[in-house]
Amino acid sequence: MYWRFDRPESSYVYPGRLDDWDGTELWRKYSKEIGASRHLSNVFNVFVVMQIFNMISARKIHDELNVFSGIFENPTYVTIWVIIVVGQIIII
Questions:
Q1: pTM for this entry
Q2: 82 lies in the same domain as 46
Q3: How many Å is the maximal CA-CA distance in the chain?
C-alpha cells in the first residue's frame, strides 16, 4: 500500500507533506506516478458538521421538542453559526 510509511511495523498513513521535517522524502517519491496526496478530511468534516448540529440541539435543555424555535432571536449565535459553516465550506 503506497499510502503507508515504508516501515512494516508502522501503520501510519503518509501526511500531505512532500518531505519530512528532516528533509527525507515522504510523498514526493510517489507524487510523479500517483499524483497529489489524498487528504482524508472526511472524518474532520463529519466531526464539524456534528458539532454544528450539536450547537443547535444544545440550545434547549429542558426537554423542549422544537430546537429551532427562536433560533434567529440572538444575532451573535446566528453570526457564529454562519461563520463556522462558511469556514468549513472554505476549508473543504
A1: 0.53
A2: yes
A3: 57
